Amino acid sequence: MACPFFMPTERSLQGTWIHPSRLPLGAGWNGHCESPKNQGAELSTETVQDFCNMGYATACPHLPGARPYDSVRFAVAHDGNPRIVLWYSCEREHLPAGHGKLEYDATLQTWISPHPDFRIQKMADCYLQSYLLRRIQPASADFNASPTT
After folding, report:
1. pTM for the whole thing?
2. How far is CA 10 from the centre of its chain?
3. CB contact set of 96 (below 8 Å; sequence gap of 6+)
4. pLDDT values of the chain reduced to their tens digit, one per residue, 149 residues
5. Is 85 exposed, middle or buried, given 0-12, 13-18 or 19+ CB atoms closer than 10 A?
6. CA gyration radius, the chain
7. What are the structural domain ranges in the chain?
8. What is the residue-wise DSSP string for the chain?
9. Residues 15-25, buried b or exposed e (16+ Cβ, 10 A)?
10. How far is CA 90 from CA 44, 81, 100, 144, in A?
């Protein structure tokens, strides 16, 4: 559940997440703040890691009091040639505050139905990029391990 004001710009290779692929955007991301009072503010590595990538960052000094969402999450609903459908869910105070689907055409490399909020759409782009990288480069099993007897 990423912060709804986080504008991811590039994948982060600096985070200390145990399982980065389990993060809300499918990986750790660097970026900046798009909250009304801090638009474009550069953020510390700790802020990005602890608050922006995770959502529900009530301790974040950039988070405005009046906001429609506390967090946004994504999931792949369907991956069929050539369309990929993502579900998104927005939450406020741990309650549903909006949801829907976004469709991407992998052949045309374009969104058929994007989100109207540019921040959430950018997060969907990042989530999709992380998903596609995992799909292309799946985790490999260690086939050289010795069997237990």
Report:
1. 0.82
2. 11
3. 89, 90
4. 678 888 999 988 776 777 777 788 888 898 988 888 788 777 888 888 888 888 777 778 888 888 888 888 999 999 988 999 999 999 888 889 999 999 999 999 999 999 999 999 999 999 999 999 888 765 544 444 444 44
5. middle
6. 17
7. 6-134
8. -B-TTEEEEEE-SS---S-GGGSTTSS-EEEEE-STTSTTEE--HHHIIIIITT---TT-TT--SS-S-SEEEEEEEEE-SSEEEEEEEEEETTEEEEEEEEEEETTTTEEEE--SSHHHHHHHHHHHHHHHHHHHS-----TTSPPP-
9. beeeebeebbb
10. 25, 27, 9, 43
CA atoms within 13 A on the CB side of 93: 4
- Closest by Cα among 127, 132, 114, 94 to 23: 127
Backbone angles phi, psi at 15, to 5 degrees: -65, 160
CB-based contacts of 75, cutoff 8 Å, min separation 6: 86, 87, 89
Q: Amino acid identity, residue 7? A: M
